[in-house]
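seq/struct pair 1
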Amino acid sequence: MANINIRGLTEIDDPAYRYKMPKVMGKIEGRGNGIKTRIVNVIELAASLHRDPGEVTKFFGCELGSQTKWVEEEEKALVNGAHSDVTLQQLVFRYIQKFVLCPECKLPETDYKIKSEAIFHKCAACGAKELVDMDHKLTTFILGNVKKAKLAKKAQQDKEEKKKKKNKKEDEVTPEVDSHDKKDKKEDKKEKKHDKDKKDKKKKKKERPSEDGTDGCGSGNGENDDGSGDDAVSRPVNVDSDDAGAFDTAIESLARFLNNTDDIPLILEELRVVQTFSGFPAYYRVILLVCSCFTEGPINEEIVSSKMPLLKAVHADNPLLKRHMIGALELLVAMRRPELKPLLPVVLKFFYECDILEEEVILEWFDDETRTEFSPEKLTDETLAELKASCQLLVTWLEEAEEDTEDES
């Protein structure tokens, strides 16, 4: 059977329209009070709309006031009662209108984004983010599915964690019966002891002033005794003291570059070059970018939203880099632009609402009882505590919103 255009309640006669779906096909089964309509091609229909087959099936029940059943193992969708293909097709168009089409550009390029019990259309075509009809009964089903998926994911993670701990425990108590393994371990231990003694001797030699008047710290060419250079990735960089000049220069250079182009790949490449040339660790790209984006002027939702694609691209969903992004905001508001210090919770809320930072990352930062490696070195414990205290209302709002979502599900 030929496919038809994906549309809502408004007809689309364009034969070249690239969004297609199969016509819904129903098959009446049973008789009397047990009569049902089976949606034969619900899998293909749901796949063309990028939606879950169970959700499509549930919509028929919500609109018809009938019980529905989706059996995933058998790929079977049943709706109580006898319903014609014409009726079912009109319901599909209504479903597309409400839960598939973007309210702005009217294209079926949306995915769901759920925040605080609210379901939004996130359009990949135009970037719009619009609320769906929350009065429709299907929204309860969608939120319930999200809750189940989260619980299933958490259960799987807990199961894997328990398995790892069990395997680790078994490895610790497993007796060593291979004499060759014992011999190899003994030789490794002896070799490590020899290396340790050698390093201790070198250390003592460094601490002793040399006869030529040097301080015993090497030739001054930036290399260690073994000929290797400094590890720029692991050494801590203090941007507010020794490296402040290089950091300020990097910020000025990047800020000028940002004013001249919006090309994200080009900006990321320039960011990498500046970070490497300045001798900063790789994660400093996040810090450099945040400070370069907000060198002056206010920070409001419109500005953060305009920077959203770039700020998301620089951390690429890496949880550690997201924590470094909060550290960059600490540096920005507490040490580079102290006038913004009282506005940290507002800025964090903008980053959350623009999908740059998730609530989990913000809550993890807030719950850290001691300072971590993500905060600037010269940021005092008192200032850090003050910044977190100012974010208490934001954290309470995030926690309550998350609890409400779980209760609704």
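seq/struct pair 2
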Amino acid sequence: MFGQFKKPGDMKKVKNLLSKYPLLGSLMFLLASAAFFTLKSPMNRSGKNIFISWDNCVSILQSSAGISIGAFAMTLVLVSGGLDLSAGATIGLTGAVAGHLMYFEHMTWYVAFIAALLTGILVGVLNSILIVELKLPPFLATLGMAGILTGLAYLISTGSLIPIKDPTFLAIFGYKRVAGFPVLAIWTLVFLAFFYVVIRRTKLGRRAQAVGGNETTAVNSGVNIRQVKYSAYCLMGMAAAIVSMTIGGRLQSAIPTNGSGYELQFIIAAVLGGTGFAGTGGNVFGTLLGSLVLAVFSNGLNLLGINSYLIQILQGIVIIAAIVSAFAYSKKKT
């Protein structure tokens, strides 16, 4: 099977294979990481491997939930030719809004939840106005928006931790299990199905791919660019609000920095899942695979007791490799 890669042109063949099947590289990396961490994992007091224990697998599913949900939405944004660097700040803001309403205003969890969702959607509208109406590049528009949202989150929370104690909220968005299965993983499956339908089975998804592939051609074909971009960024804002709930449920608190760095994880999970930057990809199952890659990698390094700063360096290397791969894949498709 692997004998074909022992000749002088081996590396070129491998490169072409990975370029043709971008998910293959992510799957290989996931399997290799899982095998490595299984071999190197410490044992618990019962002499069982910690990495492959059910509790650790549940921990991986819980930590990957937030990444997956946001990454599904980011997949749609990337497919439409956009980019959202304000997603992490949106998480911080919506979490602060929900936490403030529950803790200081003594409102019920569902009122706080709805307020957070509306806040996230509003952020999507504002991003769309900057990008569609004012013609700002998505990178600059959402980067500037991120600064505004972070400042608002600090104002609402007064820069301090807001405890979240509502038992119903914690049960829905926290560590509760249903028949041994983490509730956060159920949220992941719900949004996996939702964004699969949106991207693959609706006009919005098809039009988003047309816009991302060639906006001029899409306009000439009668595609409503404004509708596509507004929808994509509003769904991103909504997803970021959901992610903030899952983080708040796990940490039982809301902090302005809760979403710090999540926007990059969303992008990389989508890229690892085969989504490019020119209307290519859009496979949410691939995005889920990318999210698991990030979660397994981070979990395994933490179990091995690797220095947190070194973990950041290693994650940065993975990010660069993923982006290089995505650009190569997008170039091949165009």
